[in-house]
## 1
Amino acid sequence: MKIPKKKFYITTPIYYVNDVPHIGHAYTTIAADVTARYKRLNNYKVFFLTGTDEHGQKVLQAARELGIEPQDHVDKLHNRFKELWARLNISNDDFIRTTEKRHQTLVTHILQKLYDRKEIYKDSYEGWYCTPDERFWTEKDLVNGNCPDCNRKVEKIQEHNYFFKMGQHQDWLKKYIKSNNKFIQPASRRNEVLGFLEKPLSDLCISRPKERLPWGIPLPFDESYVTYVWFDALINYISVHGTLEKIESSGFWPVNHHLLGKDILTTHAVYWSTILKAIGLDPPLNLFAHGWWTINGQKMSKSVGNTVEPNILVDQFGVDAIRYFLLREVPFGLDGDFSHKALIGRINSDLANNLGNLLNRTMSMIKRYHDQIIPEPNSRAEDADLKNEFKLGIETVQKLYGDLAYHKILERIWLLVDTTNKYIDTNSPWNLIKSESGKQRLATVMYNTAECIRSISILIYPFMPKSAETIMEQLGIETSIEEQGMESLKTWGWIKSGRNIQPGLQLFPRIEDKDVEKILKSVESLNNKDQKPPMLIETEGICDQILIDEFMKVDLRTGKIIEAEKIKKSKKLLKLKVDIGTEIRQVVAGIAECYEPDQLINRTVILVANLKPVKLMGIESQGMLLAANNNGQIVLAGFDPIPNQGIRVR
Ligand code: MSP
């Protein structure tokens, strides 16, 4: 009989869809991916969830500025996260969006249930409101009259709202935290939450009047309000599993880990735990609050222009180096400062010199001494110390996963890399080959080295999946890493003799000193380049390859501009009429800062003719003009000589 797999559920926060993804977001998502992959190696059925938080004031505001519907705005924006996760090799099992029906249905159901049970009531409310954070504060919460969280101005607001009776769960929550050591980690953060719970816990305002904020999930019992964005967002962790009944029977609740940044611990530890208590679900088993990345000691922010863009890092250094660096450099739970120099340092020392070199030298010795074939060991009883070192190392790594101590796990794995390098040096295969008795020992040494590398490759797989797979390919092993699993590390000698190895390219090429300055300048300038608001960002690297028929789906036509005028209240947009031979198209183009309307009349341009029309500043745009953004100067694509209108451009 097949034994059902044990289940394991891990989540990241759902990211604000409006934000441009940066290394802070990538950090949590990579950390969750590592644990998800590790659990799969241990034969668990894993559910790994990430997604986007799509309601609230900021999304509405951004969509209004662009003159488009908020739904169209989020439909576009959420893809930036999805695409980045694919690039970073994130193995999430689902991606939830709070504008999806499955999510809205459960939020509505929970609200109605709590309302029917009188856990939600209406009251008049006066408080200080921070619009960017979408949070109410009391007078005593304010710091110098500003929002205690973001230090921005707050407004005094008086209105009727709905409240969730959160305060009544205070004693239960305190007791729960105190009697479950691992519920909130690290311990310092747990103490902070307990400190917060020393003050009386007020009820939670869970509504916003629709007239002030129409972009949200309507309250089922009063359509003139929408749901407070945090009450809506937190439910994502269960809405992904369907109805409350399905969640209980799914085997994925309680969740094993919610990974999150320290800034959103209170919302999870207090709001989320009490909501769950009220609806009768168990609290999460663990909330792990990690620290924040700063850049040269400064908070990352779009306005300062210092956000570190993961795509640029990947283009320059490769995915696995980034995954490794983020989790190796700073203990999970503490703040850390990001620097490209430190990243290059780790690539050269840990990846190129230690691990890369171990693989290269082993491959070249098996090639030279054993005709590229993993030899049969002369004795399986020798080298007990080496085998013991690995046994201990693997046990320690397994324990460290319990506390998500990623940097210690990597440190411990690298001790095994060092052990293997030392084993080679001590045995000196280059001397053993010189004598007949030495050759006997050589076979054992090379076999054991190959097995060490296989073990290391399994251990690094959660952190660096592509590199681990490449190592397996070079060792000539076809069984997938997940199939081998942690189980295959229990006894020494899984690797079979007689296999043909496939030496390949260097895994992690060293970054030479002479290139460092050039690389640093290039990544830093790409990062600082005029970080633009969403939708106006250009991708710097070449996009992924597509097939010709995918390209041919884009219908590009020549067209002549026959009318052009400015759009009131818009600095950027012009309204154009473009003759494309068979019809006249109205196009709203963001070129007003670079072209005067009169300059454009009779100009031949290239129009994307089969784009779904959108509204910009309330005006329908039936196509898009091709143009290059030359350091902020928009230049329209054109021809020389000039063709007729309506010709297809390929
Ligand atoms: N949408 C909410 C979460 C709702 S979860 C039900 C939110 N989104 S966020 O996009 O602002 O932040 C998401 C996560 O990114 C948070 O865990 C936050 O701590 C993390 N980070 C944002 N900037 C960061 C750094 N500079 N460094 C590390 N993590 C940071 O909050």
## 2
Amino acid sequence: MKLAELGEFGLIDRIKANVAASPSVLLGIGDDAAALVSTPGQVTLITSDMLLEGVHFDLSFCDPRTLGRKSLSVNLSDLAAMGARPRHFLLGVALPREIPLEFMDGFMAGMLEQAERFGATLVGGDTCASKGGVAISVTALGEQRPELVLKRSGARPGDLICVTGTVGDAAAGLNELMRGLREGFLASRQLDPTPRVEAGVALAEAGVASAMIDVSDGVLQDLGHICELSGVGARLELSRLPLSDEYRAACGADPYALALSGGEDYELLFCIPAAREAEVERICAGLDLRVSVIGEVTGGSAIELVAPGGTPYTAPRRGFDHFGSD
Ligand code: ADP
Ligand code: MG
């Protein structure tokens, strides 16, 4: 069956039928706007991300269910980076009329399974026909106590720079996908990233981080945002970058280039006062999540890269920029 036979309202009903009720949703899908109950004492954090066919994904190598999961994950990662707990989300889709219904069924199954895993409820959206490819826009809402929200500003000279998980995998995975290698750890890190929601919330609630961001555009680019907004510089020790064995096997002669500039790992990059290091290790160990100190915040404004042995390193690329030339 084609989407055109079901129609816009048939599709919305089909989506709605699979959404579980939630006590915080007074009115969900079906009215002109949703009505949500906020948790007393908390502020709402709201974030939006678009995924475009041909720009962010290629339907020839991502199945609809995984794409559904990722479309929500990238938004949950932004909430995690603020230390917010996900609560609700909206889904805008533009779909070619001839797309099979199975595409949307698979996509929604993936999106709603990820939503359930992280405690977010779908409360509305918009649906239209596309004359080009598939376009997806998710807006996610989360909550946190205002004093615990983690911003990009707030890093201080002397703070340690930490990152969860491993970096460079998703970019190496994209290279493999483009070469036709459709399976394995690196490809799955590109197609199906895990938003570090529990870690983001736990770090915020422990009050240990001075600044936080998620790694969507590459360590260097995203650390650059923290530095700029905090008015600080940084020194990164490349020997301390957490690299997976799979990444090391795939990265070629220079292991640092892609680890620094590769986007879409959706790990958390954050700064902490040096005295809180053991506490951060405990929090992440409790979540079974690797965490590494990769450098230190400095007083200047530059990001200094130090290769093993102490020699300076110049990154061939900074990271992803939609309007950039890379
Ligand atoms: P309106 O024309 O008043 O904007 P719509 O017909 O676009 O209303 O939407 C009807 C209802 O379905 C609304 O509650 C809207 O939030 C919801 N909705 C539309 N598209 C989606 C979607 N892709 N996912 C979830 N809810 C949707
Ligand atoms: Mg509408």
